[in-house]
């Protein structure tokens, strides 16, 4: 995994939560308005300070606090949110999705990689998100979406010809005790299109390392 010592601590939602992220990731709320239930960070590879229309480049990291859907089972949660995110990103042909073991065709615009569910928050050595503060399930997946840059986080989405393939890594932490789903996503542009090689169909060491540092500081955040 990535070295946590090289990351910077960030307070989330007014100090109610915290996480450690790469120091070059900029808080998008410093540039434009971000919804209260969301925290957005972007890796800015250019010197510009403009983030409208997905200005700047590199990956985008988002944390959403969402009302827990009681009728949504843990085994289905990651794929449900992956499809929901595709709609938010204005991905093409949202109903079409194939697994990494399917050759697919040029009409497919969503590709799903590895999915899994694991228990976290046990505060024991080896536990993935040991500082979370409660025991719960984390439901994860990754895949690719053919998206309009900025459609999810900017009111001014780009034109159709600007569509790009984006690799999406996703983890939904299901806080049943406060009826909240914490959705964590890392979206990275994939200029060469989807990569279905073995390493690309699992969560990256960077994403795993960042999510492992998530901590709830004040449970009053959830009302």
Structural class: mainly beta
User: Tally the helices: what do you get?
Assistant: 2
Largest sheet: 8 strands, mixed
How many extended strands?
11
Structural overview:
The structure is a single chain. This protein is globular. It is mostly beta strands and 223 residues long. It has an eight-stranded mixed beta sheet with strand order 3-4-5-10-9-8-7-6, with helices on one face. The protein has a three-stranded antiparallel beta sheet with strand order 1-2-11, with no helix packed on it. About 11% of the residues have low confidence. The N and C termini lie far apart (34 Å).
How would you describe this structure in keywords?
223 residues, mainly beta, 11 strands, 10% helix, globular
Summarize it.
By secondary structure, this protein is mainly beta. It is built from 2 helices and 11 strands.
SSE arrangement:
Elements: E1 8-12, E2 17-21, E3 25-27, E4 38-43, E5 60-67, H1 74-88, E6 98-99, E7 110-120, E8 136-147, E9 164-175, E10 180-189, H2 205-211, E11 215-216
Parallel strand pairs: 6-7
Antiparallel strand pairs: 1-2, 2-11, 3-4, 4-5, 5-10, 7-8, 8-9, 9-10
